[in-house]
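Pipeline run #58 for the internal structure catalog. This entry was flagged by the ingest filter as a single-chain record with no existing model, so it goes straight to prediction. Upstream metadata was stripped on purpose; only the residue string is passed forward. Reviewer on rotation: M.T. Logging verbosity set to normal.
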Amino acid sequence: MEFYGYEIPKTAIFVVVLVVLFFAVTRLMPLAFSSAARMLGVADQPPGMAPRRSRRTAVIPTVLPAKAPAVAFGRADVVDAGADWPAIQELNAVFARLQARRKPTLPREGDLLKSKAAWKLAVFEQAILHRILALVSGTTALWDARNPLGAALCARSLLESGAIVLEIERQIRRLLGRGDLAGIDACLTERGFASNPDGWIEQARKARGPDLLKMIDEAEKVSPGARFYYDRLCEIAAPEATGQHAVFGSLDKNGTSATFSEDESLEPSTFLLILGAAKIVAAVETAVTGLDEIAQKTVELEKV
């Protein structure tokens, strides 16, 4: 082959072609693959990492979870603590029924549109159901995460919330017996519809005093042991001797050293207190059913 009067050997041409092909393969192909990867949303990443999503296209899941995870105490923890597993199974069944009653949206229609009291009762019921189930879920999750203090705090709050539900159901039932719709409205407004943050703080301060203990004592009538479990959980939750040294530390026999660990109170006695506190949810289920009955009666009363 001649080029500007020079004879070029075929071997040289072959070598040049190979060099060009090598450059194309080693330099241009990775760029092409990288561009394609970015278009598909799987740009270069370290091994083991999930592919990044494309910034241009939102990924919308085609399958949504059918229902929330079940809230329940695990058999292994219950058996290890020496508790009655069949009894806790019944408690887990209560949790499941309350989960079924819980709604993500509560439309105001039908009787709820006609009756202000029934509407407020329904809103209070749903809000407290969400709270109580969140506390049960938090209790079990924190215990599984080896955080006994967090689990005890949730269990104590669960007892307080349950006692308040029982108290409100009693108050409203008494008011209904007198036909006092205004009193029912005032009670529900105070408990569930306060809009002044200062009011919330003041109510919380009052509730932490004798009023809350009185509610816990009343809860004892339908949930035996409520006051005992509450007092013990308060000891663990409070930043005092039991809630500090007993939960997190231990001394050696000679008193020459102390060791500290969050696992210190991961023991059956603490879990039994948590289980005892959770039993109030069975009484809450009965109270919530009573609130449904009261709501229907308020609708009839408002028609009169």
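catalog note: The chain has two domains: 1-60, 75-303.
catalog note: The CA atoms of residues 209 and 244 lie 23 Å apart.
status: ready for reviewer M.T.
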